[in-house]
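Supplementary Methods, section 5.1.

A reviewer requested that the exact input to the structure prediction be made available. We therefore reproduce it here, unchanged from the version used in the analyses.
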Amino acid sequence: MNRHPVKRRPERHALRVVKGGLAPADSLTQSRLRQRGYRVGDIVFAEIRKPRNPRFHRLAHAFGRLLSENIEAFEGMDPHAVLKRMQWEANVGCEEMGVEVPGAGFAMIRIPRSLSFESLDEGEFREVMRGMSRHVAAQYWPTLEPEQIEQMATVMVGEE
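The structure derived from this sequence is encoded token-by-token as follows.
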């Protein structure tokens, strides 16, 4: 018996801004809207999110690679694992949850959220990257400013 069902991510549809409204951005979205029975004039609720620039998605992996190649504590780790550890260490882009530890009581744990392209908009993503950069500057590279660390990762994006 599953006592904690997995939360299903809502289906998302690509929409294009048109004069005075939104319209399906592609034929797949048109088809899905028809299948769901939506008609002209229907009222629907939607979560509007502008996806981030694809270059910023590559920035996260460049940041992880920068750390794995230059900081001993991350040596041998793949960029994705570095990002998850950085999120956890810096406590940015994480969910916090209380868990019961038998014999010890309750403890708070941090679970890094997904940084995937569709999971975070550009503003949220920049916040997480800034937080990780500040943490790296404070813990691992105290001679550098967070902006310098972000700039190094940005340069690495161009090398890919």
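The CA atoms of residues 56 and 122 lie 8 Å apart. These observations are discussed further in the main text.
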